[in-house]
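Archive entry. Fields below.
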Amino acid sequence: MATAAIDAARILAGGDLPGLIVVNDAGKPLLVLPGTQVLRLAVPSYCQDDPTLARVIDEAAADVFFRELDGRTVQECLPDEPKEPPVVDGRATALEMAALMARTRSPLVAVTNPDGTLAGVVTMHALLDRILGDGA
Amino acid sequence: MATAAIDAARILAGGDLPGLIVVNDAGKPLLVLPGTQVLRLAVPSYCQDDPTLARVIDEAAADVFFRELDGRTVQECLPDEPKEPPVVDGRATALEMAALMARTRSPLVAVTNPDGTLAGVVTMHALLDRILGDGA
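PREDICTED_STRUCTURE:
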């Protein structure tokens, strides 16, 4: 949770992810950080109140983002009511992960190692691609 | 809304999209269809009630999806409380779209033509990539 907010934004941008799984100090999945929540910290609040105001800002969006996120941590991006991530172990089938995403309305599930630490993340997009992508 | 649900799932899978914008007969954006909502139709409900049950199904996920979605339309995938899509026109700046995503907590915005018909969709991922991706 002490990860810099700007690094979280970069991971979202580079990783084709709808959100991030935040882990605790022991490496166990703690909660889901939706990507739009990072945007809430990156965009000045007066622009969020009236998005058309953003049009008159004579500054590159990247500069605004870097200034707003400077020195902030993931901790500050957390939603008021954080959602516990849907979690599966390494034996989960594609259908099981799809069922969990459908049930929790989460576009990503955390995959854990036997000791409960985070092994990886499966996104809805990757899952659908795997299920329907090949020859479908 | 008469689009086949299986085609919606394929577009989600192939298009790297967190959801779809559903348009009315006049081509104007009507609502957002979150990807997880399509999964709710694709996965048998007893699996959603207990995702671990999915593990014992001796059938490929793709076969289950095709059977469940067969003959269904996007209309049937719509959430109980559909969300109106955030909409911008072609003059919107990157910061304006980010502000709108932050405000509406939507990972996609609809871009419209001057006549109000849908011109395209910008995803949070594409936007972050554009803002932070180059040399950031």
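CURATOR_NOTE: The CA atoms of residues 42 and 62 of chain A lie 10 Å apart.
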